[in-house]
Amino acid sequence: MKQPQEITLLIVDDDDIGVASVQRAMRKLGMSNPVRVGRNGLEALEQLQVLNDTPGRNPCLVLLDLNMPRMNGLEFLAELRSRPELAHTIVFVLTTSEDPADVANSNRYNVAGYVVKKNAYQSVLATVEMLQHYLRIACPGVIAPSAI
Fold it and tell me: What Pfam families does the database record attribute to this sequence (predicted)?
């Protein structure tokens, strides 16, 4: 029987504090999933393409900020969904934007969730805990139980 794979978490955020908060929350919750970081949408697309082209790669889940330089989150989503080999990627938006237009535009690209960071670390911790539960429910048999 094939061993389940861990899901790689790709954090797409240009803010080092935001990235560190996600990593700290993961450690606090005992999550050992592999983590990659993209500082903007272009870096994230490059990393996803490399992961996709790697034999035996881990599936990937994206935590996406919207406000970034070079290629913002909505531009990233548009490009991601236009690429057949990457279009299936699960994306959760984790941003400070409460703008209804950002929510609506994100949902147009079939994001799995939209979370507003209100009080920095507590919001991130709650989001990572929600991801932990999501992975258990939505990806049974894909993730090793010890990974989450």
Answer: Response_reg
Q: What are the tokens at 66?
A: 């919207």
Q: Which helix (H) or strand (E) holds 9?
A: strand 8-12
pLDDT at 56: 67
Q: Where are the beta strands (DSSP E) in 99-138?
A: 113-116
User: Using one digit for the tens of pLDDT, what is the confidence trace for 95-140?
Assistant: 989 999 999 999 999 999 998 887 777 778 888 888 887 777 776 5
Side-chain-side CA neighbours of 10 within 13 Å: the count stands at 25
Task: Please tell me whether residue 13 adopts helix, strand or coil conformation.
Answer: coil
Beta-carbon contacts of 126 under 8 Å, excluding residues fewer than 6 positions away, are none
According to the model, what pLDDT value does residue 3 have?
A: 44
Enter the pTM of the model: 0.85
Among 3.40.50.300, 3.90.1230.10, 3.40.1000.10, 3.40.50.2300, name the CATH number for the domain at 8-147.
3.40.50.2300
